[in-house]
Specification:
The complex is a heterodimer of chains A (439) and B (328). Chain A has helices spanning 83-92, 111-124, 147-152, 168-181, 192-195, 204-209, 217-233, 245-256, 267-271, 293-305, 320-323, 340-349, 356-370, and strands at residues 12-21, 26-35, 38-43, 52-55, 60-63, 65-70, 95-100, 128-133, 155-159, 185-187, 200-201, 213-214, 237-239, 261-265, 310-311, 386-396, 415-425, 428-432. By secondary structure, chain A is of the alpha/beta class. In chain A, the strands form 3 sheets. In chain A, strands 1, 2, 3, 4, 5, 16, 17 and 18 form an 8-stranded mixed beta sheet that branches. In chain A, α7 (217-233) runs parallel beside α8 (245-256). The two termini of chain A are 36 Å apart. In chain B, the strands form 2 sheets. Chain B has a 5-stranded parallel beta sheet, with helices on one face. Chain B contains 10 helices and 9 strands. Chain B is globular and about 75 Å long. Chain B starts with 29 loop residues before the first helix and ends with a helix. In chain B, α1 packs parallel to α10 (316-327), α2 packs across α9 and α9 (293-313) packs across α10. The longest helix of chain B has 21 residues, at 293-313. The relative contact order of chain B is 0.15. Classes of the chains: A alpha/beta (439), B alpha/beta (328). Chain A binds chain B through residues 142-149, 169-170, 173-174, 176-177, 179-180, and chain B through 204-206, 218, 242-248, 250-251, 254-255.
């Protein structure tokens, strides 16, 4: 279900880093040796076996991150992102695996289109890529795709992300039928009759600036609907890019009642509020929109207590000339792969709002578990999917330094603390920004 | 003269016996089923003679009232009546005053004016036979009412199994396909329970009714252990455009179609017809030696003869008379 360029596995020793793998119960300074891409030893004074040695003193070694919500814009908008550039960006951000959304041109709704993407990933992907297929043909919300065939062809899950599944009847059928495939439905919850023509959160900022607003109920009403259907059909589902406190409350209630529901939140929803829109910078325009502080705090609480188990960037590259327009005319979406860890470390971990171990869990273990992927682990015998982090490195987010083909980042010009210095994905180094390495 | 109010029921004079119908398998006991299968065997024996016509129902009027298309059922009821020397009247709704909007009740009353002995009715709505039973004094035989029941199909299927396999109790039958919309499945499930046949339902999730209380699975491999695979038709006429019970017939055929590869040696295959070859059933399976479809159709004639006879002769009493007539 995950596809990557074939490469030789690393022979490498990572010495003296603080190894932090909460799921394995490890938080200690240890050495890790990798033989041909597989973790061969974890301990103190590990024999280097003549491998290259990376000095991890002062650095943190963690399971690499998994982003379950990325837009690779391929096929159709390769000017914005390709599999090669998107996975390079992911590697720079410490991700060993990303899941790509199917709202491309054409939509990934047939085994033929999916097959072509799988082939491309096998040629070009720097980190592992999983491809979601659409729930409905063309994402028109009318007819189910041939899900069983798509699952056999490699679809990792199903989504109509970008648009909601408007018909409750069809949503019900999708929940029923997806059970045949064993793959999850990942849902973009939006009642479009409540959000039509909107650009920002319906709150005081929109009221003052004059923008048509997207009220929180526009999201939560459909969150509740989908959770109710999932409960009735006893099927699992995953809620994409949650933004509203009401949605979080609904998710929590459903999980308490035994519904197999999971949720994700983006870095921008954890850090920003609709106040950011005052700048009229189109890089503050996303769907769902940035909301009020009370929403942000509810999302953070949910992330802490595990109601929300995953962080997802919803990396949404856009062409410069399209984002460079008045706010209402600009498309929704921001990139995020290359800054996710750093901004969350800077804004949440350093100020003591979220433990580092929790951040690692929500960026790695949680997303893998939700989608049924092998979770990255620091354990002997596991394929090396690791990230080395320099928590003290200060760096500035610069437009000309992105690996992504697009530069529509909400952090342009910002200085962040904490940086990915090495990413090993599927056993091979995919990104490196180390100061000095010994032979 | 003042009327006398009876205080004890047993002092009442006996009333006429309740009029026999065959509306649903749910109304039958195991004894009823065995009696009907026995009568069918008797009629089957007479079908082997040169002169296939029996005088049993001479002078009786049997009306076949069909509101839905049918090849098998209507022809076998008509032939069954004729073989028993009854007079038949065959009304199809298309081409009748139903086209002018005449209600079922008025149609029943109209036909009731001819004092038919039996009305055999097939109708797209659940409960239509009951309505006709209330509106006339005929014996009513349900030839299929919407998604509800098709009792004579279940009886002929059971008869087929008995003829082919000898035994019924302990058999395992897997019913595969669109169970949700199937009156055949509903009747079969009930008749299987009466005779001790273990039943598994297999199909796409949206076509397996919830709350039916029968073992059900979406995994086609569950047919592996069954003695008989009973295949249901994908009923497009009951599925509106965009209903999305399955993404496509192509995917249905790929995941649940009964192909030779999915069957084990010795497994029999049944289908109530008509078949969508290439959808729910592979043509090679339909035409194979393990397919009991032709036997089902032949069974339909004698089973319907038994049903018409049984409904008119009052059940157990009739069987003794039938047996006596045979000996004579």
């Amino acid at each position: 279900m995950l596809f990557v360029k074939e490469r030789r596995g690393d022979d490498l020793v990572l010495r003296g880093a603080r190894v932090l793998d909460p799921a394995e119960g490890i938080d200690a300074v240890l050495d890790v040796r990798i033989d041909a891409g597989v973790i061969a030893a974890v301990g103190t004074q590990v024999d280097a076996n003549e491998h290259r040695v990376v000095d991890g003193t002062g650095l943190v070694l963690a399971p690499a991150f998994v982003d379950p919500h990325v837009h690779l814009r391929t096929p159709g908008r390769e000017d914005e992102e390709t599999i090669a550039s998107g996975t390079a960006a992911a590697a720079a951000g410490g991700f060993c695996a990303i899941l790509a959304m199917p709202n491309t041109e054409p939509v990934v709704d047939s085994a033929a289109t999916l097959g072509a993407l799988v082939d491309a990933a096998r040629r070009e992907a720097e980190v592992q890529v999983g491809f979601l297929a659409a729930i409905t043909r063309g994402q028109h919300g009318a007819e189910l795709t041939e899900m069983a065939e798509l699952a056999d062809a490699g679809a990792v899950a199903f989504s109509d992300d970008g648009v909601p599944v408007t018909s409750a009847g069809l949503m019900r059928r999708a929940l029923q039928y997806a059970s045949v495939t064993g793959r999850l439905l990942a849902l973009h919850c939006e009642e479009t009759s409540l959000t039509y023509g909107s650009h920002v959160h319906e709150g005081s900022v929109a009221a003052e600036l004059g923008f048509t607003g997207y009220p929180s109920v526009g999201e939560s009403v459909m969150v509740e609907r989908d959770l109710a259907l999932a409960r009735y059909e006893d099927q699992p589902l995953h809620l994409l890019h949650l933004s509203a406190a009401e949605s979080v409350a609904g998710l929590r209630r459903a999980r308490d009642a035994g519904v197999r529901a999971s949720g994700e939140v983006t870095p921008h929803h954890l850090v920003l509020t609709d106040e950011a829109v005052r700048s009229l910078d189109s890089n503050m325009k996303m769907n769902p929109p940035l909301r009020a502080e009370s929403d942000r705090l509810a999302l953070l609480d949910a992330l802490r207590d595990g109601t929300i188990e995953a962080i997802a960037t919803d990396h949404a590259p856009h062409a410069r000339h399209e984002k460079d327009a008045p706010f209402e005319a600009a498309p929704f979406g921001v990139t995020g792969l290359e800054t996710a860890f750093s901004v969350l470390y800077t804004q949440l971990v350093r100020p003591g709002l979220l433990p580092l171990a929790t951040l690692v869990d929500r960026m790695s273990t949680g997303p893998a578990r939700i989608f049924g992927l092998d979770r990255p682990r620091v354990a002997v015998g596991a394929t090396a999917n690791l990230v080395l982090l320099d928590l003290d490195a200060e760096w500035q987010v610069r437009e000309d330094a992105f690996r992504s083909r697009s530069a529509n980042s909400w952090l342009l010009g910002e200085t962040l603390t904490g940086r990915v210095v090495l990413t090993i994905a599927a056993g091979a180094t995919a990104h490196e920004r180390l100061a000095v390495t010994s032979a | 003269m003042t009327s006398i109010r009876l205080v004890r029921d047993e002092l009442r004079p006996p009333g006429p016996p309740p009029r026999r119908h065959l509306l649903s398998i749910a109304d039958l006991t195991r004894d009823d089923v065995e009696r009907l299968l026995g009568a069918a065997r008797t009629f089957a024996a007479s079908m082997d003679r040169e002169l296939k016509k029996l005088p049993t129902l001479k002078g009786r009027l049997i009306v076949n009232l069909f509101y839905e298309s049918s090849t098998r059922t209507s022809s076998s009821f008509e032939l069954a009546a004729k073989r028993l020397s009854a007079d038949t009247l065959n009304i199809k709704s298309a081409g009748s005053s139903v086209d002018k909007g005449e209600s079922l009740r008025d149609t029943a009353l109209t036909l009731g004016a001819y004092d038919p002995d039996v009305i055999v009715i097939r109708h797209p709505q659940i409960g239509a036979p009951q309505l006709v039973a209330d509106a006339t004094s005929a014996h009513i035989v349900n030839a299929g009412d919407g998604k509800h029941q098709h009792p004579t199909q279940a009886l002929l299927d059971l008869y087929t199994l008995q003829q082919e396999l000898g035994r019924l109790e302990g058999l395992h039958v897997a019913i595969v396909g669109d169970v949700l919309h199937s009156r055949v499945a509903r009747s079969l499930i009930q008749i299987f329970e009466l005779v001790g046949i273990h039943c598994t339902l297999v199909g796409p999730p949206a076509l397996l009714p919830r709350d039916l209380g029968v073992e059900a699975t979406t995994d086609i491999n569950a047919i592996c252990g069954a003695d008989v695979v009973y295949v249901l038709r994908m009923q497009n006429e009951r599925m509106e455009q965009g209903a999305n019970f399955v993404p496509s017939l192509r995917e249905y055929a790929a995941r649940w179609g009964i192909t030779p590869e999915r069957l084990s040696p010795g497994q029999r295959v049944m289908h109530p017809g008509p078949m969508n070859r290439g959808v729910e059933i592979d043509p090679r399976v339909a035409d194979s030696v393990d397919s009991l479809v032709e036997l089902q159709v032949r069974s339909g004639l004698v089973v319907r003869m038994a049903v018409l006879y049984d409904v008119l002769t009052g059940g157990p009493v009739g069987v003794r008379a039938l047996a006596a007539a045979e000996v004579a």
